[in-house]
Specification:
Layout lengths: L2 H32 L6 H16 L6 H22 L6 H22 L6 H12 L2 H10 L7 H23 L13 E4 L2 E4 H23 L1 H11 L1 H6 L4 H23 L9 H15 L5 H21 L4 H7 L1 H20 L1
Antiparallel strand pairs: 1-2
Helix pairs in contact: 1-8, 1-9, 1-11, 1-12, 1-13, 2-5, 2-7, 2-11, 2-12, 3-4, 3-6, 5-11, 6-11, 8-9, 8-11, 9-11, 12-13, 13-14
């Protein structure tokens, strides 16, 4: 392997690792706040890519129908809860967010999509369609069983994954899609050529990570999420709403997934079920961080990206197996460490 091949593989590995960092951070966030191992995280990536690709083709994406029907179902559940609790003042807000918003966005999308708007408008419209599905999904599926055991929440997550994958096949078909590149530029440093697309992905991922840092450190909602992640009972005692924290966590997870789809779409063909495999790689990175540490999860994501890149060069047929096998030594080390701690406590 010459220096040029090494540089290309490293560049690809770090670029893919930047996407896995975002997914790993989202998985850690959702698990820390709600105890949900969010298997459908990858579906938001697929929905983001395929929705944006449909808009670029001048088509109305099927996501609008999913948003409308999910909004109606969630609105009915919310209305029943508000009426039972006697919270009449919440009714206009519920009707607005779960009813008027999806319907208005439906007609807006049908008007804008055929006009081939600029990419920035297409991305914003895609986010408006995909991101609200996160908190709606939490309210409809996870909030009623918020106190269930982790295993039950995991089984429900698998069911949600299969449902979303089925809807993806229904709305987008079995064909894959890519979106237009953000830039065709390239930069040379000696014998090494850097793709402008890869640099854009790295820069965008870094901006998102910094934005999340300031959100957690400087905003009241971010501090509420941190409090819920550290101690759910303690958060309740200081009047932090666990329900609101769960919805915010799912909102951020949906936003991160959709933006990850925007970033990866120009370099990888995405199918309706591609998000599952990509999300699992983010899950491997999250396991490296123990589903608790954001820095370790980020480091694990870069490691997964590099392993994927180099194994695709040396043993492409076993690329996925080698990457997913990384989870075995990580779990073994954590088991040994946890066992040692328990033995020390017994002594």
């Amino acid at each position: 392997m010459d220096i040029g091949s090494l540089a290309i593989l490293t560049q690809d590995g770090v670029t893919n690792g930047a996407i896995y960092v975002l997914l790993a951070v989202a998985l850690v966030l959702v698990f820390a706040v709600t105890r949900v191992i969010f298997i459908p995280q990858g579906e938001f990536l697929s929905y983001g890519t395929l929705t944006l690709a449909s808009l670029q083709l001048g088509k109305v994406p099927g996501t609008v129908w999913l948003l409308v029907w999910t909004g109606i179902a969630t609105g009915i559940v919310e209305l029943r809860g508000a009426l039972r609790a006697g919270q009449i003042r919440r009714l206009p807000a519920i009707a607005g967010f779960y009813g008027a918003y999806p319907v208005a966005l439906f007609f807006l999308t049908r008007w804008i999509a055929p006009q081939n708007p600029p990419m920035a408008v297409q991305i914003i419209l895609m986010l408006l369609l995909v991101v609200p599905l996160g908190p709606m999904l939490y309210r409809l599926v996870y909030q009623p069983i918020a106190e269930a055991p982790v295993l039950v929440l995991l089984i429900v997550s698998m069911a949600v994954h299969f449902a979303l994958a089925g809807f993806g096949l229904l709305f987008f078909g079995a064909e894959g899609a890519r979106t237009s590149a953000f830039t065709e530029a390239s930069f040379e440093l000696g014998a090494v050529t850097f793709s402008g697309q890869s640099l854009f992905i790295l820069a965008a991922s870094a901006v998102l990570i910094v934005g999340l840092y300031f959100f957690f450190e400087r905003t009241l909602a971010g501090k509420a999420l941190r409090a819920t992640a550290v101690n759910r009972m303690g958060a309740r005692l200081v009047a932090v709403s666990i329900t609101s924290s769960g919805r915010t966590a799912f909102l951020l997870a949906a936003l991160i997934g959709a933006l990850s789809g925007v970033l990866i779409a120009p370099i990888t063909t995405i199918y309706y079920d591609s998000g599952f495999i990509i999300g699992l790689k983010g899950f491997v990175a999250a396991i490296v961080g123990g589903l608790a540490s954001y820095p370790l999860a980020a480091g694990g994501a870069v490691l997964v990206g590099l392993m994927e890149s180099f194994t695709s060069y040396w043993a492409s047929a076993y690329k996925e197996v080698i990457v997913f096998a990384l989870i075995i030594p990580v779990l073994l080390v954590r088991w040994l460490f946890t066992r040692r701690v328990e033995e020390e406590e017994e002594e």
